[in-house]
Amino acid sequence: MIKTNYHTHTDFCDGNGTVNQIAQNAIQKGFNILGFSSHSMYPFSGSYHIVQKEHPLYVQAVNEAKEKYKNQLTILLGFEAEYAPNVTKPDFSYYKSLSPDYLIGSVHYIFTPKGRLAVDYNAERLEQKINELFGGNAKKMVCEYFTLEREMLSNSAFSIIGHPDLVRKNNGRLHMFCENDSWYRKEIKATANAIKKAGVIVEVNTGAIARKYMDDVYPSKEFLSLLSERNIPVTINSDSHTPEGLDAFFDKAKEALWKAGYNEVAYIDENKNIRMQKLE
Hints:
Layout: E1 4-5, H1 19-28, E2 33-40, H2 55-68, E3 74-82, E4 102-106, E5 109-112, E6 115-118, H3 123-134, H4 138-155, E7 160-161, H5 171-174, H6 182-198, E8 201-205, H7 207-210, H8 221-229, E9 234-237, H9 250-260, E10 264-268, E11 274-278
Parallel strand pairs: 1-2, 2-3, 3-4, 4-7, 7-8, 8-9
Antiparallel strand pairs: 5-6, 10-11
């Protein structure tokens, strides 16, 4: 199997390693393709995103690494691009001046007239914000999250959707909702349909396991089954924030995919082509 990871954070955002440190670790771990995807709200700055003026520096660092390690590793330039209605979105037209090889489209924030909430806050802060902004109604918050994802899918052009059920991150601690409830299942089914229509790849993200929030990947078992039924391509990503975590729990992601009925995974090659390979 060609070993890949496209969800990789650096010290340009909230990651702990430099581009060079991460590339060297990828070589040691036997990666064939490594995509860098620091958080971005381009052309603006966010709380844990690349600072506006440092976007060119990030691009330069990744492109220099491409050349430096070209005989050992294929490196791709990407961004985990934030979706913020009427502000920024994960669209190649927005990022054209930076010439990315791919974009990951993600929803982290929910905006309300009273303020904003990040669905991946720590449990205590998330609970506080749900009380402040949604009157304690977690269902309303979750539905708004999936609505924003479907909105992003319908009006943006990107390559991979990031952690499409990120709202599960703190559910084991806060018990905000039951994934078996009909309303929740309706939300993920509608989102699977929107993903199919958009034609993007879905990442199977192991980041919550690595950071001990859940003992499971994003998307969930049922969500993955819905994607499999629709023949939606998937790829395995670690959402790594350290050089050492590049391939954390990849075996667990493969197991989840086999159980959902997948026998192939997608990858993006050095020419930005989407290719399929056997899941081994």
